[in-house]
Design goal:
By secondary structure, the chain is α/β, with parallel strands linked by helices. The protein has one domain: Rossmann fold. About 35% of the residues lie in helices and about 15% in strands. Strands 3-2-1-4-5-6 form a six-stranded parallel β-sheet, sandwiched between helices. α2 packs antiparallel against α7. Bound molecules: adenosine-5'-triphosphate and nicotinate mononucleotide. The site of nicotinate mononucleotide has 17 residues, from β1 and α3. This is Probable nicotinate-nucleotide adenylyltransferase. Belongs to the NadD family. Keywords: ATP-binding, NAD, Nucleotide-binding, Nucleotidyltransferase, Pyridine nucleotide biosynthesis, Transferase.
Length: about 190
C-alpha cells in the first residue's frame, strides 16, 4: 500500500490542491491520499476554524475514492507539526510506504520545521510545482514533482470573497455552497 499525506491549512481547499494531489497520486502510484488539515499550522494563522476547514476538505474529496480527509492534526493538541503526524501515520500504517506531499513553496522553510532533518526517516518528501517556486531550487531529500501549474491560492480566494466576487471553479461546487451558507472570509 502506498499512501500520500497531502498537508495544508486548506483555508479553504481549492482546485490547485486537488489537481496537485491527483497528479501526485498518478505519478507516484498512490493507493490513497489523505488530506491532512493543519489544525494549528506552525507558520500561519488560519482565518476559518479547524473544523470548518476540515468540513470543506471532506466536501471537496467526497467524490474521489482515492481521497480522504484526515483528522490526525485536529485530534492532537498544540501546533500541528509534520514530524508528529508522520510518526502517527507510521504507527497507523506500519506496512505502508508513506509520501508526504506539499507545495514547493512550503519546503523552502524546511530547515525551520520541527525536526525537519528527521522527516525523511518517516516518509518520502514530495514537493509539487507551484507558479513562482522553481522545482530546481529544491534539494535532497525533497523530491520534486512537476504538476500543471495552477496560479491560485487560498489567499486569493479569501480576497475575492471579501470583495464579493465569485469563486466558482476556484473551489469545488460543494465548497462554494458551504462558503456561501457559512459566510466565511466575508
Ligand atoms: N495552486 C497550487 N498548486 C500547487 N500547490 C499548491 C497550490 N496551492 C497550494 N499549494 C500547496 O499546497 C499546500 C497546502 O496549501 P495551503 O493550504 O497552505 O494553501 P495556499 O493556497 O498556499 O494558502 P494561503 O494562500 O492561505 O497561504 C502548500 O504547501 C501549498 O504550497
Ligand atoms: O512541522 C513543521 O514545523 C511545519 C512547519 C511549516 C509547515 N508545515 C506543514 O507544511 C504543510 C504546508 O503548510 P502551509 O502552511 O503551506 O499550509 C502543512 O502540512 C504544514 O503543517 C510543517
Amino acid at each position: 500500500m502506498r499512501i500520500g499525506l497531502f498537508g495544508g491549512s486548506f483555508d479553504p481547499i481549492h482546485i490547485g490542491h486537488l489537481l496537485a494531489a491527483s497528479e501526485a497520486a498518478e505519478a507516484l502510484g498512490l493507493d490513497r491520499v489523505l488530506f491532512v488539515v493543519a489544525a494549528r499550522p506552525p507558520h500561519k494563522t488560519p482565518i476559518a476554524p479547524p473544523e470548518a476547514r476540515y468540513e470543506m476538505v471532506l466536501l471537496a474529496t467526497a467524490e474521489d475514492e482515492r481521497f480522504s480527509a484526515s483528522r490526525l492534526e485536529l485530534a492532537r493538541p498544540g501546533p500541528s507539526y509534520t514530524v508528529d503526524t508522520l510518526r502517527e501515520a507510521r504507527a497507523l500504517f506500519p506496512e505502508a510506504e508513506l509520501f508526504f506531499i506539499t507545495g514547493a513553496d512550503a519546503y523552502r522553510d524546511l530547515p525551520t520545521w520541527k525536526e525537519g532533518e528527521r522527516l525523511a526517516d518517516y516518509a518520502t518528501l514530495v514537493a509539487v510545482a507551484r507558479p513562482g517556486y522553481p522545482l530546481e531550487a529544491l534539494s535532497a531529500p525533497v523530491i520534486p514533482l512537476w504538476v500543471p501549474e495552477v496560479g491560485i491560492s487560498s489567499t486569493e480566494i479569501r480576497r475575492r470573497i471579501k470583495e464579493g466576487r465569485s469563486v466558482r471553479y476556484w473551489v469545488p461546487r460543494p465548497v462554494e455552497v458551504y462558503l456561501e451558507r457559512n459566510g466565511f472570509y466575508r
